[in-house]
Amino acid sequence: MTISDEGRWAYRPALDGLRAVAVVLVICFHAGTAMFSGGFVGVDLFFVLSGFLVTSVMLAEHARTGRIRLGRFYARRVRRLLPAALVLVVGVAAATLLVQTSYTRHQIVPDARASLLYTANWHFLGNATEYFAGDIHASPFLHFWSLAIEEQFYAVYPLALIGLFALRRRLGRRSVLTVGVAFGLLVSLGLQLGTAATDPLHAYYGTETRLYQLFAGALLALLMPAGGRVRAALAWRPGAARMAPSAGGLVAAFGLAGLLLVGSGAVAMAASGRGLLATVAAVSLVAGADGAPGSATVWLLSRRGMVGLGRISYGVYLWHWPVIVLARTVIDPAPWPMAVLAGVLAAALASLSFHAVEMPIRTSHRFDVRPWSVALAGVGCSVLVALVAVAPILDVDTRPALATRGAPLLVGDADPALVAALEAPVPQDARLDVAAAAFDLGACRAESQEGCTLRHGGGLHVLVIGDSNAQEMIPAFLDLAEQEDFTLSAAVLHGCPWQQGLLWTTPNDALLRQCRDVRPSWYRQIIPDLHPDVIVTVNVPRDPEVGGSGYVSENPRDTRPVTEVVSAATSSSLDALTATGAKVVMIEPLVYGADNPADCLAGAATVGECAWTVPAEVQPSTAAYRAAAAARSDVDSVAVLDIACPFGPVCVPFLEGALVFRDGHHVYAEWWQAHLVELWDRLRATAGFAPADAAGG
After folding, report:
1. Considering the entire predicted model, what is its pTM?
2. Hey, how many other C-beta atoms are within 10 angstroms of the C-beta on 433?
3. Beta bridge mates, 551
4. Which of 116, 592, 10 is nearest to 394 (CA)?
5. What are the beta bridge partners of residue 654?
6. Nearest 10 degrees: CA dihedral of 43, 379, 163, 60?
7. CATH of domain 449-691
8. Contact (Cβ atoms closer than 8 angstroms) between residue 186 and residue 495
9. Closest Cα to residue 433, out of 394, 402, 474?
């Protein structure tokens, strides 16, 4: 649509065609197609288009009536967006009963609530460490992050625009609106660029770092000839209602080609840079589509199929991601079949929602009488469903009827005890949804070392360092410290290998940066100041093919094979640790399965469906540990695999009526606590724990 000479809206089918382009790009990206590996820029087009349209609507209203009616604006937004979102959340929550386990369903209760409260972007950003540090299933509500940003924009932007109109009247300067919106754009763009350099995940999810795209659309609405005049740029003629056809056609074609190129896999760049280019392309495309109706690009975007898909694009966006997540649970097709499946099903569900729910509410005149009541009632319904209805649906303790199950592990003529463990039914009341061990990861810092020591005891001082696997062992070490009366300290950080110079392959750049910032203080200040007698190192495996991401060197120019990188980093780190006079005890990394055992158990009939076998060969990181221990008298390598997998090489995730593995990357803390005797026996066998006054005889 565009504003006519009378200040009213005239429908522009091409703008619906733009929505179709955006949602197709997003579907192809989420389905995993290599051709559109940058297809998430479809969201950038949605942002620009939303900023353009919402500003145009308010400009038209102000031109017509001299004011912006907030109640009417909010009521329109509520009637447009909330009904479909409520249907989606309730419908997907019900569908998860068929295909997802109770474990997974419980995990996504906060996701569903945040989606309905339109805080999803901050919710997912706040939980980014958990998502990337461990094994989790994709949330069917993850895509609500972008809708949350739009809703937050809609809540505040009209107030800002009203303020700018008031300031314009007071100052008598017509440029106040343009300058104000441009200022907001520049501030947000600066935050995007600055945050992307230090925290790309925040730059992607943060409201303040993505507003520049909505402001870009808003600024375009102000600069288009119907809203304010641009005389020189893009061959706009003074006083004209739109661009010259030839220039407009070129701008639209450039925008469409640029968007498809940036959204393709042909361009390799960071998400922030891709978003900036996509914004430029989107602005060009929206300007051309609205200002040059006779161009070939606009003709293409105005075709019946494109317009039809664009009209239901909001619903398609809502439904496509849950379809992908739930389909992968059952059939897991290849990327292009998944894209087709998601597109067709999402379009069908969106069409049903559009005609049965959305349009009746949007077009009913009964809701026009009291707009503030409608807006508040809609928000109230969303809050009520989020707080009251979501959890009872998702927390139903039933096994999924359609989810695929693994075949029971065949062990032949194995130990009868192992066979019995594998054939044991998973108890209906099994405690599977367990949290990480309670531990303040930020307590131990160079500037506040009192937070490093967890218990003061006798003569022996033990320091545990490592990643979240170390965190899971802290409760057991606290029990041992109490039992054997030694001092216990801990320096632990999610996703951070204890070896200097090592990182791991994770998309969470903030986690990597935190490791780079904090770990040097362990070696430079904390360990020398604490002066421990024994340092215990603990890591999740980062060897290929054993349930963990690979190690990478902190030096991007280091091109050595990973085995050499791990060996060298282990050796140099041991040099630094033993130089303090401490004995080092390295807990050998466990070998985990590919899936989340707790999630698997929630949908399995027998424990054996979720068991796995560990590789017979020694993994590279374990080999590096053992080689270092063999060459040094003050270093030991301690194997604990048989404590977690007593029937090795078969690992059974549920034994003795209890969960062994909290998820796909961690032994459950209570399992370590239940097996203190075995753990202490291993530690006592090392020289560092040998003194009688420390080891209790």
Report:
1. 0.81
2. 18
3. 504
4. 116
5. 659
6. 70
7. 3.40.50.1110
8. no
9. 394
